[in-house]
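ok trying this again, last paste got cut off
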Amino acid sequence: MILRCLTNVLCVLSICACLLVLNSCSQNSSHYPKRPITLICPWSAGGGTDRVARSLALEIESQLSVPVNVVNATGGGGAVGHTRMTNAAADGYTLGLATVEFAILEQRGLIGVGLDDVEPLAVVNADAAALFVKAESPWKSLKDFQTHLAQANQAVRASGTAAGGIWHLAFEGFVQTLEEKATQTTWVSINGSAPSMQELLAGGIDLVVCSLPEADALLSAGQIRCLGVMSGERIPSHPDVPTFSEQGFSWELAGWRCLVAPLGLDQEVLSALQEAAAKTLKEPSFQKFMADSGFNFSPITGSEARQFLQQSQKALGLSVNSVFPESDAADFSRYWFPILCAGALVICLITAVAQRSSGLDTGDVSWSRLLLGAAWAFLFILLLPAAGYLVAGCVFLLGAVLLLKGRWTQALVICLVAPASLYTVFAKLLSVPLPWGLVGW
């Protein structure tokens, strides 16, 4: 009986292995791309990163002749989107527009992935931070703002991005350089510059820190005022905006955006994406979009893109550690879920073996059933990255219920309802990234 069960298990594993190999071979064929590509934007719709991502998507779409769909994966101060683009299948069908917050999250130990876990295709732009207030604000300059901080009786409310993001870092770093340090400043965590500007106009916050291009529409309409830009020299697209250094404040900081792909791409797929990215940055239409929007177009491709990210990570390390000294290392890595499953499986097996060895009644539990259950759980963990959570979860629960001698109707109901319910709770409501697999589920 045991031998027959083990034989069946080996047959199932062999078939699955063959399917994975065949799928891998088909993915690495010379016909890439065959289906639409997803471009993940880690910030809200309407902001600077979203606008750049959608313009990139249009150009890449024309280069590769397949649809490129932008998905706004927000949450966790950028952690959700950056984790999702990093952990996606390395098949060339999921890209991401990473921002400088990726390096900050890694530096603070708030994310289980890092810049070394992605393949940089092209650095698109780098824009300096700037400080904005409503047009009717009494603050006309940074000196006025500094004076208000010294005399403030209530907290100054600022935003521009989620807590811990690049604009938060820019604001806190600037405040720390002042002689009259603000004793009460509150950073309101909002996912993106666009909703932050809406909150500023509504009176919910006192100022916004973001790049000039992100605020250009409201700035041109006269609804907001820029007190200064955190760069060494004035921005050509906004020559009337003074720099911080011109006003006597020694503080500079900029954010960047980089088109990335998951690490481990087939060389043929990687070459196709690198070529498409390089051509996109040279397209007159894309360059016109960047210029008209006021973005500081700074194209970097090839090995130089990787060097840029490494240099940025090193430079940000000093600023992050000084502004956020309380940063703690991440408690979990990306492997915590498989390790947790494996640990639970080991505990169950040890418990079952101990009970049988001591002669305790374990009911209708045989050695063959224990081994089959262990193999089935191990197969689920192996299939997660390739098949995705929903598919692997349905297959696993179907086999598990039947293994426990449940009815087919019970097994079908459970395998259809449970994975979909858990997926809705974690992926949709809690914004927890789950393995997507081949079909994008």
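PB: full thing came through this time. The first helix runs from residue 2 to 27.
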